[in-house]
Design a protein that fits this description.
This protein is an alpha+beta fold. The protein has 5 helices and 9 strands. The mean pLDDT is 95. The structure holds FE2/S2 (inorganic) cluster. Residues 35-38, 46-51, 61, 63 line the site of FE2/S2 (inorganic) cluster. Pfam families: Fer2_4 (PF13510), Fer4_15 (PF13459), NADH-G_4Fe-4S_3 (PF10588).
Length: 237
């Protein structure tokens, strides 16, 4: 008797190993589930909820939910994609995302997901928070207006670079990313452009100076293919 374990994802069987989450097993089997705060090099964070799926009538974060034998998972359905669109709309209005003038345009996961999930408007009222940029560092600009609180820079700086440069502070609508320095300025830390944390932001908060718009339209990450295709090509590499 085979001891291969499987669950159903949108009616298709997905083989998994013990300890894998729904998202990990789905990716390994070639099925894309949208995500923003999840990254293969880090434990699940569970904050963005873009990876939401329906299991047994409940909405769960597939990046954090362990796969179980025989479970029936709904992901690429009008209901789940509608939930994801609403979450994206909330992310867009709680920050200041001006895609046409953003250096990360075309390479931004938030923008790419909005295109892929056919988000046509922000729907909700914009908060227009006041978040000054930090241009103090010689090589890196911080534009906090685009932060989606995925904490990938926080985690990378703490767990990989061993520097603990970033943190989230405050709660609810006042939550924001800060630099761990008495002055609050990036220039007053030992942050380097080669740090993992400097190269992990899925949106346009951490930008390398003198490299803006270096890749022309047509050659950017998501110009030719949607994020749902690009993300799965990365799995195959
Ligand atoms: Fe699962 Fe963000 S990817 S909560």
């Amino acid at each position: 008797m085979s001891d291969t374990k499987k669950f159903l994802l949108d009616g298709k069987p997905v083989v998994f190993q013990d300890g894998q989450t729904i998202l990990e097993a789905a990716r390994q089997a070639g099925h894309y589930i949208p995500h923003l705060c999840w990254h293969p090099d880090f434990p699940a964070h569970g904050s963005c909820k873009l990876c939401i799926v329906k299991v047994g009538g409940r909405h769960v974060s597939s990046c954090a939910m362990p796969a179980k034998e025989g479970m029936e998972v709904e992901s690429n359905t009008p209901e789940m994609n509608g939930e994801r669109r609403a979450l994206l709309q909330m992310l867009f209005v709680e920050g200041n995302h001006f895609c046409p003038s953003c250096e990360k345009s075309g390479n931004c996961q938030l923008q790419a997901l909005a295109y892929d999930l056919e988000m046509l408007s922000a729907h909700f009222n914009h908060f227009y928070p006041n978040r000054p940029v930090d241009a103090s560092h010689p090589d890196v600009l911080l534009d906090f207006n685009r932060c989606i609180f995925c904490e990938l820079c926080v985690r990378a700086s703490r767990d990989i670079d061993g520097k603990n440069i970033f943190a989230l502070t405050d709660r609810g609508i006042h939550k924001h990313l800060v630099v761990n320095a008495e002055s609050g300025r990036l220039a007053d830390t030992d942050f380097a452009a080669s740090d993992r944390a400097a190269n992990i932001c899925p949106v346009g908060v951490i930008l390398h100076k003198r490299q803006g718009f270096a890749r022309p339209i047509g050659e950017r990450d998501y110009d030719a293919k949607p994020i749902s295709v690009v993300a799965m090509e990365e799995v195959e590499k």
